[in-house]
Design a protein that fits this description.
Strand order of the largest sheet: 2-1-5-3-4
Structural class: alpha+beta
CATH superfamily: Beta-grasp domain
Number of domains: 1
CATH architecture: Roll
Shape: globular
Number of helices: 3
Number of strands: 5
Low-confidence stretches: none
Mean pLDDT: 92
Strand content: 25-35%
CATH topology: Ubiquitin-like (UB roll)
Distance between the termini: 49 Å
Length: 96
């Protein structure tokens, strides 16, 4: 079965401190893994407690976070990734 490699960047300080890395490359079995799949793979590697830090009670991305694929903000964590993509997690900043 085909695998894809996705580079994951952790720019949210509290996620970075939990994982202990700025970035890593993860391998996911199958094609067209979603950002949700990436999140679950991160939790598989680094511990299930990360799910509560990344996902809200409804299974969506926490409002305090933004997710990007190749520097483009995504609204839905079911968006698909491709081999070689970069997924970035950072803190959502609200202006005032």
């Amino acid at each position: 079965m085909k695998c894809i490699k996705v580079k994951v960047r952790y720019l949210a300080p509290y996620i970075k401190s939990l994982i202990g890395l700025d970035e890593e490359t993860i391998i996911i079995v199958g094609e067209g893994a979603s950002v949700r799949d990436v999140i679950f793979k991160i939790a598989e590697i680094h511990g299930e407690q990360l799910l509560t830090q990344l996902l809200n009670d409804n299974g969506g991305l926490r409002e305090s976070l933004l997710a990007l694929i190749n520097n483009s903000v995504i609204q839905d964590i079911n968006c698909k990734t491709k081999d070689g993509d970069t997924v970035t997690f950072l803190i959502a900043v609200n202006g005032g």
